[in-house]
Amino acid sequence: MTEQEYIRRAEALKQPLYRTAVLYLGSESAAVDAVDEAVYKGFCAYQKLRQPEFFDTWLTRILINVCNTELRRRKRELSMDELPETAQEQFDALPLKEALRRLPKDLREVIVLRYFTGLTLEETARTLDIPRGTVSTRQKKALTLLRLELTDEKEDAV
After folding, report:
1. What are the tens digits of pLDDT across the range 132-150?
2. In this structure, what is the dihedral angle of CA atoms 121, 128, 137, 142, given to the nearest 10 degrees?
3. Which of 68, 136, 69, 79 is nearest to 105 (CA)?
4. Under a CB-based contact definition with an 8 Å cutoff, are residues 113 and 82 in contact?
5. Strand, helix or coil at 80?
6. Phi/psi class of residue 72: alpha, beta or left (left: φ > 0; alpha: ψ in -120 to 50)?
7. Could you give the CA distance from residue 59 to residue 46 in angstroms, rounded to a whole number?
8. If pLDDT is split at 50, 70 and 90, which confidence band does 75 have?
9. Which of 12, 48, 70, 99 has minimal CB crowding within 10 Å?
10. Confidence band (pLDDT; 50, 70, 90) for 91?
11. Are 10 and 59 in contact (CB under 8 A)?
12. How far is residue 158's CA from residue 156's CA, in Å, rounded to a whole number?
């Protein structure tokens, strides 16, 4: 893979990466930073990629690692006083986003990669380095939990 090919492929993948990062981090500005860092880390290591056909899942995995590092860093920070609610915070509080955030990490990863990033079962399995059957099982469990939670919220609102 050449430098120009890396740049072209990374540029084409930025939108799906951004969507994934927003769902992981819950913030547009943090997502932009995470995508930039993942693309930079990928650029530094693209010559080590042995199978260029797995470029998309390789770069997505780098992004997931960057997002997980950011989430760990956030946990260590002291919590700040609550700021007034902004329009973005209201948007982030939509039932589906909240339900996704409440899923266990392993289930949330599968849903984000499958439905919001658009990866296939095989690509998701390679990205998470788990068997295809495990992806399928986690997907079914996550969808069941989401359906239950969103149905309960709907009934509570009525």
Report:
1. 899 889 889 988 888 887 7
2. -100
3. 68
4. no
5. coil
6. alpha
7. 9
8. confident
9. 48
10. very low
11. yes
12. 5
| Spacing of C-alpha 103 from chain mean position | 13
The pLDDT assigned to 80 comes to 45
Cβ-proximal residues to 91 (8 Å cutoff; 6+ apart), any chain: 97
**Intra-chain end-to-end CA distance of the chain, in Å:** 56
Spatial contact of 35 and 21, defined as CB atoms under 8 Å apart: yes
3-state SS assignment for residue 103: coil
40 and 19 in contact (C-beta within 8 Å)? no
Per-residue CA distances from 53 to 25, 65, 86, 92, 103 (Å): 28, 20, 42, 35, 31
